[in-house]
């Protein structure tokens, strides 16, 4: 049996050991400090889709402070220090040519109502300035991204309406071709190319997005589309939830030559946490995600990388990144790997803020430009579910705007070729 003196010494050693055990990792302390100075901006979260699947968007039946069947809830958001989130207004490709626009509007509505129901947590945001204002108020800036070009039903007017409702990016396609753009599955060989990238109308969509100030999201498109958009967009682009192809050769990821072009044009690739895109297998660890951050930084610089977790849109996430509360662990891991404070702050939010500000500058420079109001050629969308009202000679000839755009792009290509 220990003497009283020995017992006191033993107790002191136990207390010291416990203090050492539970003292915070210095990298985590540093991560939290940086996250208190710069907003963590995540490019893609599918909680709104989960609200439709589980509750049919009936928010009165949901308590986001207690919800425990999703990656995302208010306690996890707060623990994860989420400064800003692009919430995905997503509807499946099966809605294409049917009720995609209505269902997308309902997803936009549920995001607005989520912000209204929890004003102490969320602040609806549509600009870089709004993000910083929400951050200063210790709220999560809530932006909208529409995931899939099928959601606009090949209508520039619908694109404009969605912008007016607060949508700030459009993912050009999801996992289906639209009447104007090819999707990533074309690169796997499982689907045929319909447009060799973008159709002439697809290029008009890009120009109208520039005019509006809507970010162009190249997640889910073919490499051909990536390069076409990078060549023609006046504003920087985003990949809202894609990773590095050289680390995991999945066609949803971004190859090195495209990463370099993103750097040259001032865009951003926001790393996806889905195991299948992280390790090309069913399992992954936090360190595997950090490998993608390291690779993108090595190839294209720290100014190109961001966070695009894809929480609540995927079925498998890495060990150590089980839900949105765990993201500070990844920030600490980057610091542990030698990332500087400046590089981490760039990835957290400064890169995305820069991209938004540049898109806003392009929008402001195009204020005198009229909206494009020429519809897609009727033959491109003709079906038994669609009427031809408004087409004077439906399907007979392409619009003058389309012809002019095609000639302009051809001329630009000739000028570029001659310059080389």
UniProtKB/TrEMBL annotation:
Residues 1-23 form the signal peptide. InterPro entries: Dipep_AS (IPR000180), Metal_Hydrolase (IPR032466), Pept_M19 (IPR008257). Its cofactor is Zn(2+). The keyword Cell inner membrane does not apply. One of its GO terms (cellular component) is side of membrane. PANTHER family: DIPEPTIDASE 1 (PTHR10443:SF38), MICROSOMAL DIPEPTIDASE (PTHR10443). Homodimer; disulfide-linked. It is a lipid-anchor; GPI-anchor. This is Dipeptidase. Pfam families: Peptidase_M19. SUPFAM superfamilies: Metallo-dependent hydrolases (SSF51556). It is an enzyme of class 3 (hydrolase). It catalyses: glycyldehydrophenylalanine + H2O = 2,3-didehydrophenylalanine + glycine; L-cystine-bis-glycine + 2 H2O = L-cystine + 2 glycine; a beta-lactam + H2O = a substituted beta-amino acid; leukotriene D4 + H2O = leukotriene E4 + glycine. It comes from Channa striata. It is found in: Apical cell membrane; Membrane. GO terms for biological process: lipid metabolic process; proteolysis. Belongs to the metallo-dependent hydrolases superfamily. Peptidase M19 family. It comes from the Eukaryota. Keywords: Cell membrane, Dipeptidase, Disulfide bond, Glycoprotein, GPI-anchor, Hydrolase, Lipid metabolism, Lipoprotein, Membrane, Metal-binding, Metalloprotease, Protease, Signal, Zinc. Independently of its dipeptidase activity, acts as an adhesion receptor for neutrophil recruitment from bloodstream into inflamed lungs and liver. GO terms for molecular function: beta-lactamase activity; metal ion binding; metallodipeptidase activity. Its EC number is 3.4.13.19.
């Amino acid at each position: 049996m220990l003497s009283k003196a020995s017992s006191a010494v033993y107790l002191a050693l136990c207390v010291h050991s416990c203090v050492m055990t539970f003292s915070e990792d210095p990298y985590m302390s540093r991560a939290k400090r940086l996250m208190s100075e710069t907003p963590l901006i995540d490019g893609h979260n599918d909680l709104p889709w989960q609200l439709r699947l589980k509750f049919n968007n009936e928010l009165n039946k949901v308590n986001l402070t207690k919800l425990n069947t999703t990656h995302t809830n208010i306690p996890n958001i707060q623990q994860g220090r989420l400064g800003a989130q692009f919430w995905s207004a997503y509807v499946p490709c099966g809605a294409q040519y049917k009720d995609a626009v209505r269902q997308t509007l309902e997803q936009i509505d549920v995001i607005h109502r989520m912000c209204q129901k929890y004003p102490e947590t969320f602040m609806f945001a549509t600009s870089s300035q709004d993000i910083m204002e929400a951050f200063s108020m210790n709220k999560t800036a809530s932006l909208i991204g529409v995931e899939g070009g099928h959601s606009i039903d090949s209508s520039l007017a619908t694109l404009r309406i969605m912008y007016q409702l607060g949508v700030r990016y459009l993912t050009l396609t999801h996992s289906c071709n639209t009447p104007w753009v090819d999707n990533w599955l074309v690169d796997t060989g499982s689907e045929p190319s319909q447009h060799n990238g973008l159709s002439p109308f697809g290029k008009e969509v890009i120009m109208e997005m520039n005019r509006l100030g809507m970010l162009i999201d190249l997640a889910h498109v073919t490499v051909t589309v990536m390069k076409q958009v990078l060549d023609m967009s006046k504003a920087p682009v985003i990949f809202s939830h894609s990773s590095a192809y050289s680390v995991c050769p999945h066609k949803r990821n971004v190859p090195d030559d495209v990463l370099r072009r993103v750097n040259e044009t001032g865009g951003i690739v926001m790393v996806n946490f889905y195991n299948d895109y992280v390790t090309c297998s069913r399992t992954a660890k936090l360190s595997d995600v950090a490998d993608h951050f390291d690779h993108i930084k090595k190839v294209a610089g720290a100014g190109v990388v961001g966070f695009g977790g894809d929480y609540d849109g995927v079925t498998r996430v890495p060990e150590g990144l089980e839900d949105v509360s765990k993201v500070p662990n990844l920030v600490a891991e980057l610091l542990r790997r030698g990332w500087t404070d400046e590089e981490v702050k760039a990835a957290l939010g400064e890169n995305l803020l820069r991209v938004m500000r540049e898109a806003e500058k392009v929008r402001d420079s195009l204020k005198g430009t009229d909206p494009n109001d020429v519809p897609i050629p009727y033959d491109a969308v003709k079906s038994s579910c669609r009427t031809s009202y408004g087409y004077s000679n439906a399907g007979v000839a392409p619009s003058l705007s389309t012809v002019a755009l095609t000639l302009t792009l051809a001329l630009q290509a000739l000028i570029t070729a001659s310059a080389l």
